[in-house]
């Protein structure tokens, strides 16, 4: 998803965002995408040992999210109203 190894590259992800729209909070659209990618990479690396290099990729994505959100969910404020 978004990565060249997947059928759906960033062009598709951007088109989805433009056509369907990003769910709230919109400013975290690509961050959520990175989290989904991490999840997928963990599963693939676990069931396909020959794809062990994915572990490095997912670590890079985790580091990127940690830089962006150093306190994790500690700073999250839900502005959605029910």
Which blocks of ≥5 consecutive residues have pLDDT under 50?
none
| Beta-strand content estimate | under 5%
Helix content: 40-55%
Overall mean pLDDT score?
Answer: 84
Which overall shape is indicated by the principal axes computed on the Cα atoms?
A: flat
Largest sheet: none
Structural class: mainly alpha
CA radius of gyration: 14 Å
The total count of strands amounts to: 0
- The helix-strand sequence is HHH
End-to-end separation in angstroms reads 31 Å
Tally of helical segments? 3
**Number of domains in the coordinates?**
1
Give a structural overview.
With 82 residues, the chain is mostly helical. The protein has one domain (10-73). 54% of the residues lie in helices and 0% in strands. It contains 3 helices and no strands. It is flat and about 40 Å long.
């Amino acid at each position: 998803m978004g990565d060249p190894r997947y059928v759906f590259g960033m062009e598709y992800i951007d088109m989805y965002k433009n056509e369907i729209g990003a769910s709230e909070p919109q400013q975290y659209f690509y961050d959520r995408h990175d989290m989904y990618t991490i999840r997928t990479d963990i599963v693939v690396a676990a069931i396909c040992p020959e794809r062990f290099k994915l572990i490095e990729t997912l670590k890079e994505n985790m580091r990127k999210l940690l830089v962006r959100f150093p306190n994790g969910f500690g700073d999250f404020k839900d502005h959605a109203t029910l």
